[in-house]
Amino acid sequence: MENENSHRCRLVGLVFGLLASLEVRGGAALCTGNSSAVAIDLATGVRRAASAELIQYSTAWETNATEGATVVIAVDGETLAVANGSGVLDWHPPRAGTYTLTHRVLLGGRQVGETLRAVFFYSALAFAETQTTEVPVPYSWLRTYYPSMADDFDAYEDAAKAGAENGVNAVWECYVAGLDPTDRMARFRTLISMEGETPLISWEPRLGIAEEARRIYTIYGRESLDMGEWATPTNAASRFFRVHVDMR
Fold first, then answer.
1. Do 100 and 185 fall within a single domain?
2. Residues 152-202 pLDDT 10s
3. Of 94, 122, 150, which closes a domain?
4. Which of 28, 155, 192, 235 is exposed most, by the fewest CB atoms within 10 A?
């Protein structure tokens, strides 16, 4: 990965919490990475998922106007419970994976307030990301592309270290670059265009503001492919360019 259109991936630092943790209003601790049950308070719903945005409650559920309302809880569109009033539902995820839990309130057959959602990843393992790769790769990301893989420590490590379908990168490098490891045509590319006499450097893929904020993109330049060193920042003598991507 040392040509002008390549990238180099280095570990700068990545913190990724256990995504299987959930909480309900009142502070009750729920599922952790090595637990098999998710407890859901039917009266208050899910408050938030770890490492995700705070999920706000519908204010209507907290008023007297919702007396006699029905709570509907579903996972991935499949209804788990329909109940009146309060109660606790124990649900055991059938396998490792990413789940979307929804909490709705119905009154007279019509929904009151918004649908509350929590997206979380469940694994029976104590870890949520690989431990032996140059960059920790979230299990949830690996299962997005390899959904049938075993929920096993070695299986995750081996998958992250394996070669991607493009024949260029390891799977963990695809995670850093934002590539689909199962796509033979996926590449991290450096692009150049001109604005007058000024070269403009960009790259593909573009991952959006949030994902790119978790990465460091560094542009290197050199005057000749045969002489000199790749240097940053670039200068007026630079004629060839490449971009390195790293995790923060």
1. no
2. 999 999 999 999 999 999 999 999 999 999 999 999 999 988 888 888 899
3. 122
4. 235
3-state class (DSSP) for residue 65:
helix
Query: Which residue has tokens 């379908």?
Result: 165
94, 49: one domain: yes
In a domain, 76, yes or no: yes
pLDDT confidence of residue 118: 73
Closest CA to 124 of 103, 93, 157, 88: 93
Domain ranges, residue 27: 22-122
The model's pLDDT over 86-139, given as tens digits with 9 standing for 90+, comes to 666 667 777 888 888 888 888 888 888 778 777 777 787 878 899 999 999 999
**107 belongs to a structural domain:** yes
pTM: 0.65
203-206: list long-range contacts, CB under 8 Å, 24+ apart: 203/243, 203/245, 205/177, 205/178, 205/179
Residues 109, 26, single domain; the answer is yes
Number of folded domains that form the chain: 2
Q: Provide Rg for the chain, Cα atoms.
A: 23
Do you know the residue count of the chain? 248
